[in-house]
Write a structure and sequence with these properties.
- This protein is of the alpha/beta class.
- It has two domains: 244 residues, no CATH class; 165 residues, Rossmann fold (3-Layer(aba) Sandwich), CATH 3.40.50.
- 38% of the residues lie in helices and 14% in strands.
- It has 13 helices and twelve strands.
- It has a six-stranded mixed sheet with strand order 9-8-7-10-11-12. A four-stranded mixed sheet has the order 1-3-2-4. It has a two-stranded antiparallel sheet with strand order 5-6.
- β8 and β9 form a beta hairpin.
- α9 packs across α12.
């Protein structure tokens, strides 16, 4: 099956003047009442298509069924536009993983709609609320989209469209409990046979996975790049809204958290590795270019950038998604600072694999694997450096820091942690 984006574009239609005016009017009103959403919408080209019944976003474009748009009041279409923007700024098009798309959409819709209603937004009467997901195991404030979606597949999955605001009818509990498990092929396939991948019983639009130009799922590096771009767009939109005094406190808090999680840690990483630092002369190693001319002289290197050793915690406690994000950012920053050599050491309780790259530009996504997967011991990578007499400029450990500390070496160490823990020595930064 072709990618869902291609299917949406196959159904492109020319909207009527009435639709164009209705959409334009909603955007203008959002510019006045909700400049943050309006600024984000500007970044999303509108595609009118009859492939889907309502609306959708893949994080890049906004897909609209023109007939559906006309069924919405002015306030409702503004609410649905805001709903789709929320899917984007929450990275729902990048975070699904192998979860069932239907359940993922329900979980995302419930959380987004609750936030929008608290902010006074108007949504269609069919829009899902917390009643759609039945009895919960924890307080509503503790749910992320992932937690809610994973909980839903352990019970009878909710029917999209059931449990709209004010709907007190019993929820249909007749679906199989196995629905949504063993999913994760292309999004069209894992909707299940006979199901419409664009179905939207809630009537607020859906989110679909981001795709590359070939209609394939994004790899970890592409996901990381999109995350950075969206984070930058969110920061800009927040500044516009804040300047007008119209940035809701709840959204301002999210923007601050997003800045810390998506931007600052990479800047700290690059700064630690010595980006933009001065050159120095290393008298312990000869300059190879001078040797080729029959001369002997010190090698000229940039402080902290020359040889980067990256130790990777491949223990089972580091999730696959955390691992992919760490590796994608590690590669990106190494390329950015133009490291002269990179050694990657994969370790759980022992060293499982070592790769050395003389040219970081040669590192491809497929080269950054995952070896091991048992417990955790931080000491072996440091022992490897000592036993192999590696000349280290910067040592970076990617980990969840769930282990006792090793002995402190005599070179700079940066710990990039997926938890809030702080290492006993070196510099610790956090990937949230």
């Amino acid at each position: 099956m072709s990618g869902l984006v291609a299917q949406l574009k196959d159904g492109i239609v020319i909207p009527s003047d009435a639709v164009l005016k209705h959409v334009a009017r909603a955007k203008i009103r959002l510019q006045m009442s909700d400049p943050f959403t309006a600024a984000m919408l500007i970044q999303m080209p509108v595609v009118y298509t009859d492939t889907l019944p309502t609306m959708a976003t893949d994080g890049t474009a906004l897909y609209i069924n023109p007939d559906f748009a006309l069924t919405l009041s002015g306030a409702e279409i503004q609410g649905v536009f805001t709903h789709e923007v929320m899917h984007k700024i929450f990275f729902h098009h990048l975070r699904r993983g192998t979860r069932c798309p239907d359940v993922w959409n329900v979980a995302g819709d419930v959380i987004i709609n609750d936030l929008l209603r608290k902010d006074g937004k108007t949504l269609p009467a069919s829009a899902l609320d917390w009643q759609a997901v039945g009895e919960l195991k924890r307080d509503r404030s503790e749910y992320s989209t992932e937690i809610l979606a994973d909980e839903l597949v352990q019970q009878d999955p909710p029917q999209p469209g059931d449990g709209g605001e004010g709907d007190d009818q019993d929820q249909d509990q007749d679906q199989d409990q196995d629905q949504g498990q063993d999913q994760g092929q292309d999004q069209g396939q894992d909707q299940g046979q006979g199901q419409d991948p664009f179905a939207d019983g809630g009537g607020t639009g859906i989110v679909i996975d981001a795709e590359n130009d070939s209609g394939e799922a994004l790899d970890a590096a592409q996901i990381s790049e999109q995350e950075r771009e969206i984070a930058a767009d969110v920061q800009n939109a927040a500044q516009i809204a804040k300047a007008q005094g119209k940035l809701p406190a709840r959204l301002a808090e999210y923007v601050d958290d997003l800045r810390d999680a998506k931007i600052d840690w990479t800047e700290q990483f690059a700064r630690f590795l010595g980006k933009g630092s001065d050159h120095r002369y290393d008298w312990n190693r000869a300059d190879k270019k001078l040797q080729q001319r029959g001369l002997i002289g010190p090698r000229r290197v940039r402080e902290g950038v020359g040889h980067i050793v990256i130790a990777v915690d491949t223990s089972a406690s580091v999730s696959q998604e955390e691992y992919k994000a760490l590796m994608a950012e590690a590669k990106s920053v190494c390329l950015d600072v133009d490291a002269e050599q990179v050694t990657v050491i994969y370790c759980d309780t022992r060293i499982a694999h070592v790769d050395t790259y003389d040219d970081p530009a040669s590192i491809e996504e497929k080269d950054l694997g995952r070896y091991g997967g048992g417990g955790t011991d931080f000491q072996p990578p440091f022992d490897y450096v000592y036993e192999n007499d590696l000349d280290v400029d910067s040592f970076v450990y990617l980990t969840d820091l769930e282990c006792s500390m090793p002995d402190e070496p005599d070179y700079p160490v940066l710990w990039v942690s997926t938890t809030s823990a702080v290492a006993d020595f070196g510099t610790t930064i956090h990937l949230n």
